[in-house]
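Now for a chain:

_____
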Amino acid sequence: MPTTFLGSALRGTCFFIFGFWWSVRYPLKYLRRKANAVSQPSQEVQRVEVFEGAVKAFFALAGILVEQFVPAGPHLQLYSPKTHSWTDLTHWHYTTMYLFFLLSGIVDIVAHSPLKLPPGLDRLSLSVALFIEGLLFCFRDDSDAALDHHVHSLLAIAVFAGALCALLEVFLRDHIILEIFRTSSFLLQGSWLWQIGFVLSPPWGGPGWDQTDRSNFAFLTVCFCWHYAGVLAVLAANSAASRCCNENCQLKFGDIDVELDCGMCIRKSSKSSGALLPESNSDDK
């Protein structure tokens, strides 16, 4: 199956957007739940889940329409009676992948509606969508393009890791380790799809990397590990930023602490740290 840089980059961007959003949302949710010793209000959680489902469904539906109705697309024709052959299976490959993510987005929306679907069904639908994605990438028609098969096999590792993680979340809901690991799999998919675009179909034109050079295989395997190291760095940075946002902004000047809370400046004396006095222009008596 030929791979275009634009298509690979767009798919990678969608995965990266979701992964980046989760890398901020889940640490914040964990810190607030830990600080308050209670879960977030159910209505707030439902609104966020419905929003994510709507965005997921929109991206998937847009992907289906683009794959089917681009000028070179199959236009919903699977088999050509004239040539007696299948029509543009590459586009049908990605259409099928988007279809299951569309179903996952719809389940996300319905699961938090008054219908009250069984708990965990949203994570199960996401797990199924990821499993289908990995299955399609594993059984691509690569012909003699060994390097193409190698880079997509590495991608399948990230996909199946995310599928397994989402499946575990069906039974272990709101588990921060599973949520972060699923987030890392989405970020890795996003960055690696961009890498695949540069390897197989460079944006500046010309042929891709040499499919017969075995050193390319070794380098790309190492490069895949570097991508995951970068993903971990993004997770660490966003987690640290989430922690800073979760706490009150506090500036310390000598023996006086100045806290910025909702635009108000509060002055605390080091001798009486328990008393909070509003800042005034007059001297303390």
